[in-house]
Write a structure and sequence with these properties.
Shape: globular
Radius of gyration: 13 Å
Strand content: 35-45%
Largest sheet: 3 strands, antiparallel
CATH architecture: Roll
Number of domains: 1
Distance between the termini: 28 Å
CATH topology: SH3 type barrels
Oligomer: single chain
Number of helices: 1
Helix content: 10-25%
CATH class: Mainly Beta
Strand order of the largest sheet: 2-1-5
Length: 77
């Protein structure tokens, strides 16, 4: 099974979605381009084949995390 990468996308409506993707570089480029233009719709496909449509103007940020990182903040063992 291919290694996946989680991408967390914050929206201006104080919401976030998190999707597992195979090609994080391609998705990152799409999101960056959408944020610069602020126009149109970005389609992100997850590892299950589900497609998610995001209005480019509503993307506030995105964070890329590899599957290997635990992503935890705070106290942990």
């Amino acid at each position: 099974m291919a290694e996946t990468t989680k991408i967390r996308i914050g929206l201006t409506a104080a919401r976030e979605i998190e999707v597992d993707v195979v090609d994080a570089t391609a998705v990152t480029e799409q999101l960056e381009q959408a944020m610069v233009s602020g126009e149109g719709v970005v389609w992100v496909e997850d590892t299950s084949g589900h497609r998610h449509a995001l209005a480019a103007a509503s993307i506030a940020f995105f964070e890329v995390r590899s599957d290997a990182s635990n992503g935890g903040i705070g106290f942990g063992s």
